[in-house]
């Protein structure tokens, strides 16, 4: 299930991230692509082991931790190292699925991917994050400060950038719950708990809580 996270970071955090990114050097993004994807991946990135990435990651991690939607949708257990991607005119990333394991040699299983947009939609043309739904594409081009998270097994691409510059922080999460369908059940139950908390009889809320906790207990992998 795809979830948007509007205004995930504050304006001050966006300014900090942009300043850090402006002082870092970018490398060819194909360095982190597998052999099959090297031709499809045309971008630049600040790799996870760059000296500035711990500061960038700390800001993003704090913001993710504040997001009830992200916590309910991802059920995070561990975060893989992040990177910053940059697309300029002519750059794109063809249709692909992200790698199942990140951070060699200390592998983190990638269950949920996220993209945090640092560029305003007016700063560039093209560059939409597009998902293959099986019935066409669902494309997203969010405002700066906003993010999107989705199951890592989802086929997706970044459409060619035609003008300007597209900057984003990209990362991956190992979830407590590896199955996509179960994470969706848990997210829906979490939302239902919030909706009925004020108006429903206590018994109804107790039963929803019971179902949520027992489902998490059944499928969680601490």
Question: Concise description?
Answer:
Its cofactor is L-ascorbate; Fe(2+). By secondary structure, the chain is of the alpha+beta class.
- CATH level-four homologous superfamily name of the largest domain: q2cbj1_9rhob like domain
Categorize the overall geometry.
Answer: globular
**CATH top-level class of the largest domain:** Mainly Beta
How far the N terminus sits from the C terminus, by CA atoms, comes to 22 Å
- The CATH architecture term of the largest domain is Sandwich
Give the total of beta strands: 17
Question: Over the alpha carbons, how many angstroms does the gyration radius reach?
Answer: 18 Å
Q: How many separate helices?
A: 5
The residue fraction in helices comes out at 25-40%
Low-confidence stretches: none
Order of helices and strands: EHEEEHHEEEEEEEEEEEEEHH
How many domains, as an integer? Answer: 2
Would you give the CATH topology of the largest domain?
Answer: Jelly Rolls
Please state the average pLDDT score: 94
- Given the helix and strand composition, which structural class is it? alpha+beta
**How many strands, which pairing sense, and closed or not: the largest β-sheet?**
8 strands, antiparallel
């Amino acid at each position: 299930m795809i979830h948007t996270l509007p205004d995930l970071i504050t304006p001050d955090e966006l300014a900090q991230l942009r300043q850090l990114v402006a002082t870092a050097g970018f490398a060819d993004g194909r360095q982190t692509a597998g052999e099959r994807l090297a031709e499809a991946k045309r971008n630049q990135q600040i790799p996870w082991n760059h000296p500035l990435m711990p500061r960038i990651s700390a800001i993003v991690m704090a913001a993710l931790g504040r997001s009830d939607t992200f916590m309910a949708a991802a059920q995070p257990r561990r975060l893989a190292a992040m990177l910053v991607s940059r697309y300029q005119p002519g750059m794109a990333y063809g249709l692909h699925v992200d790698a199942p394991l990140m951070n060699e040699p200390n592998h983190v299983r990638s269950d949920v991917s996220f993209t945090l947009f640092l560029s305003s939609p007016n700063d560039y043309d093209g560059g939409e994050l597009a998902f293959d739904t099986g019935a066409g594409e669902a494309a997203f081009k969010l405002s700066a400060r906003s993010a999107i998270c989705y199951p890592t097994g989802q086929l997706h691409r970044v459409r060619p950038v035609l003008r300007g510059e597209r900057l984003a922080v990209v990362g991956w999460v190992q979830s407590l719950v590896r199955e996509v369908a179960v994470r969706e059940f848990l997210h829906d139950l979490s939302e239902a708990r919030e909706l009925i908390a004020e108006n429903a009889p206590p018994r109804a809320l107790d039963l929803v809580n019971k179902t949520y906790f027992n489902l998490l207990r059944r499928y969680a992998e601490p």
